[in-house]
């Protein structure tokens, strides 16, 4: 008899299990179907049985939690509490014999439950970006005995996202540099915007980038935010600075999406795409013949529109008239060409020099040599200025013979001096010097001084040795 009852109980149990539909895990509701619509059903996996009238009267009491909705709309601004959903147990026959209670995160302060109906409401507006979900526990008890009718069940209320956050750029304003003359599609920089909305729900956090200001010079990838050049041969010497306004818009860029903007300041960096150019093709310099060897006797200038090392200029004297007399170097501070005297100048020998100077870049970029020769040529003429020089005696010393009884005023000889500036000789033997160019006198009896009348006076000196001869002897006396 006992074996027969056990067999019947076994068959009855499996028939009941087969007729029950599978239940989802506790606290794992399905996706929301909208306010007030059924979202899921969860049943505890515990079974409770009671024996009535002996083993043959064993009955299985079905138990299970039933709830409607586990989502609450964020930023709800209605005047009444927002309806969240309903908790219900199969044991609730609608006779108000069951009391529902709620515990966990926000129970009583954020969420409240109707103890009779199991309806849950949110008491205040919630922000998903502040807290995306709340974990709570439900309990159903007998109203009269306060005895639990269901095991306590845990469930989650998720805050459903709305598009209430605009995209924001983490950095900005951005600064970027790209070489001038870059080809189309050259990478410049990348901007990134983030959206605090839920990326797993709808398009609220799907950001699309666009350019509001900065075309046609630059472009931006709508998905990645990568900025590239959009025009070829952008010249720094024409325009160096660009300001680009980038927009990031959510909802995939659709109408009604929220947007944020940032500024990208782009600078074109210099490349060596310009040769040096002389400001004029002819330079005229005047150099005194007295200039010291190794001194700077003049400057010329070639301008380069580039900057930095790309504007460094090298100067070279083309072999010819001035190569032996002059050299040229570059002033590192201002890139002037400084002409240096290599040998002494002599106005009386050569009064002018004419030569050519090349100006070229020190650092060439082979990409731009197809533009033409990266150098320029100018002509330099240097006039040598005459400097007033002292007269020069033809001899450093003179020897003259005179008899001891020679009358005063007798011409006993002549000394000759020459002023190279005037090319004039004075005096000449037997003729007086009538020019006022020279003044001639004897100093200390033995030194002859000759000067010109220019201001300041310039003089030349020679020594004079006078031999006195006696008529009666061959004795010579030096005076």
UniProtKB/TrEMBL annotation:
Entry-linked Pfam families: Cadherin (PF00028)
Gene Ontology terms describing biological process: adherens junction organization; calcium-dependent cell-cell adhesion via plasma membrane cell adhesion molecules; cell migration; cell morphogenesis; cell-cell adhesion mediated by cadherin; cell-cell junction assembly; homophilic cell adhesion via plasma membrane adhesion molecules
Highest taxon in the source lineage: Eukaryota
Keywords on record: Calcium, Cell adhesion, Cell membrane, Glycoprotein, Membrane, Metal-binding, Repeat, Signal, Transmembrane, Transmembrane helix
Signal sequence, start to end: 1-20
Domain named Cadherin: residues: 89-169, 170-278, 279-393
Stored SMART domains: CA
Cellular compartments per GO CC: adherens junction; catenin complex
InterPro entries, per the entry: Cadherin, Cadherin-like_dom, Cadherin-like_sf, Cadherin_CS
Gene3D superfamilies linked: Cadherins (2.60.40.60)
Entry GO MF terms: beta-catenin binding; cadherin binding; calcium ion binding
Subcellular location: Cell membrane
Membrane topology qualifier: Single-pass type I membrane protein
Protein name per Swiss-Prot or TrEMBL: Cadherin 12
Species of the source: Hippocampus comes (Tiger tail seahorse)
